[in-house]
Specification:
Layout (H helix, E strand, L loop, with lengths): L2 H19 L5 H10 L3 E2 L4 E2 L4 E3 L4 E3 L4 E2 L4 E3 L4 E3 L4 E2 L4 E2 L2 E3 L8 E3 L2 E3 L4 E2 L4 E2 L4 E2 L4 E2 L4 E2 L7 E4 L4 E5 L17
Parallel strand pairs: 1-4, 2-5, 3-6, 4-7, 5-8, 6-9, 7-12, 8-13, 9-14, 12-15, 13-16, 14-17, 16-18
Antiparallel strand pairs: 10-11, 18-19
Pfam families: Hexapep (PF00132), Hexapep_2 (PF14602)
Family: Belongs to the transferase hexapeptide repeat family.
Keywords: Membrane, Transferase, Transmembrane, Transmembrane helix
Length: 181
């Protein structure tokens, strides 16, 4: 068996392990197991069931952050999520994808950074290399292809600024985490 085949097998086992972890009850158990895979996740975060995490050892999630049901967190090129971030259900964050113009369909990407107090609404998509500035809101169904400035609200495909947000944000989402869900 070649070393490439062994690496693929290891990757498949890790993917399945993360899939099993995503359906376990209790945030603390899911977070504990993800931390054992080298993810840097605050114990004051909440990660709801059904998530998909790629390369958990390149993932960092701050305190008070809530990750909704069926969220996809691609950390293969790095993913940093700040404090008190609300990532709603079925959000997809990608740090790696294919170059459709490459003759070999090569993978390309960059780390994604989600700063403090950001709200990513349901089914929004964040593409590789994007930084979402502090306090920004990404509307439901938006596709973010470029950096989002702090305290702006963006929506659409591709996402464009549609409003501004209050800059005096001071909330702690860790109190909103339901323990079993």
């Amino acid at each position: 068996m070649s070393s490439k085949s062994i690496d693929k097998f290891k990757g498949s086992c890790l993917f399945m392990a993360c899939g099993i972890i995503s359906w376990l009850p209790f945030h603390t158990l899911r977070i504990f197991l993800l931390r054992s895979l080298k993810a840097k996740i605050s114990y004051k975060a909440g990660i709801y069931r059904g998530f998909e995490i790629r390369s958990p050892w390149k993932l960092k999630i701050g305190q008070g952050t809530i990750i909704g049901h069926n969220a996809l967190l691609d950390a293969r090129m790095g993913l940093i999520i700040g404090n008190n971030v609300n990532i709603s259900n079925e959000v997809m964050i990608w740090s790696l994808h294919h170059d459709y113009n490459a003759t070999d369909f090569a993978q390309v990407g960059q780390a994604v950074v989600i700063e403090d107090y950001v709200w990513l609404c349901s089914r929004s998509v964040i593409l590789p290399g994007v930084t979402i500035g502090k306090g920004a809101v990404v509307a439901a169904g938006a596709v973010v292809t470029r950096n989002v400035l702090p305290y702006t609200v963006v929506g659409g495909v591709p996402a464009k600024q549609i409003a501004s947000r209050n800059k005096n944000l001071n909330y702690d989402l860790s109190d909103a985490v339901l323990p079993i869900i």
